[in-house]
Amino acid sequence: MKAYIFKLDGIPLPVAPSKLELEIKNQNKSITLINGVELNFLKTPGLTEIKFEALIPAVKYPFAIYDGGFKNQKYYLDKLKSLKNSKAPFSFTVSRERPDGTGLFDTNMTVSLEKYSIKEEAENGFDVTVDIELKQYEEVKTLPLTLLEDGTATAEEQRETSSSPEPKQDESYTVQSGDSLWTIAKRYYGDGSKYKELAKANPDITNPNLIHSGQSIVIPKL
């Protein structure tokens, strides 16, 4: 049994790549204050990027793995083309075992095929090698993305106005621990950006970011 088995969309590569590179980038943000102090804001790690080179043999080698029998180069190259053109994520797995059969850690993630390049060299005969670059894929479930003109994307929070108890007349509300004007506006109007209306209706609130538990505020009818 092979020590390493690479699979793209459930299909094993005939020859396990000799090198695998997984790069986990961060999204941390550093700023320098006017007094020269540098601050680093830690954020969730970015998506993993994967790179490797795969040998696609022209003939059946005794050390190669074929699922259901020998498959020619066209089969694998057509599969890569299909994965690239489908615009859909797929599974990428790497199974690792010691020669004695003892299992090591596995890699199993959903990815997209970012790019690949096919190389032919005289020293390899009719065999070809393919440089493959994958990127981890995470499904967006709650925040729809809007593509801006400059090519960047912004996430907009979904508003659930139908279930929000918008007052039919001015009401009084006692601030609870963890409240903010944004969350209160979201609760009553279904739109957090209407916190400005709450601030206008409560002139004693000089800073919309500073409200405290037990404080009584007016929830105006809009």
Mean pLDDT across the residues is 82
Spatial order of the strands forming the largest sheet: 2-1-7-8-9-6-3
Order of helices and strands: EEEEEEHEEEEEEHHE
What general outline do the C-alpha atoms trace? elongated
- What is the helical fraction, as a range of percent? 10-25%
- What's the assembly state of these chains? single chain
Largest sheet: 7 strands, antiparallel
Radius of gyration: 28 Å
Structural class determined from secondary elements: mainly beta
Distance between the termini: 70 Å
Per DSSP E runs of 2 or more residues, the count of β-strands stands at 13
Share in β-strands? 25-35%
Unreliably modeled segments: 157-163
The number of helical elements comes to 3
Structural overview:
The protein has 3 helices and 13 strands, in the order ββββββαββββββααβ. By secondary structure, it is mainly beta. Strands 2-1-7-8-9-6-3 form a 7-stranded antiparallel sheet, with helices on one face. The protein has a two-stranded antiparallel ribbon with strand order 4-5. A hairpin with a 5-residue loop joins strand 10 and strand 11 (153-155).
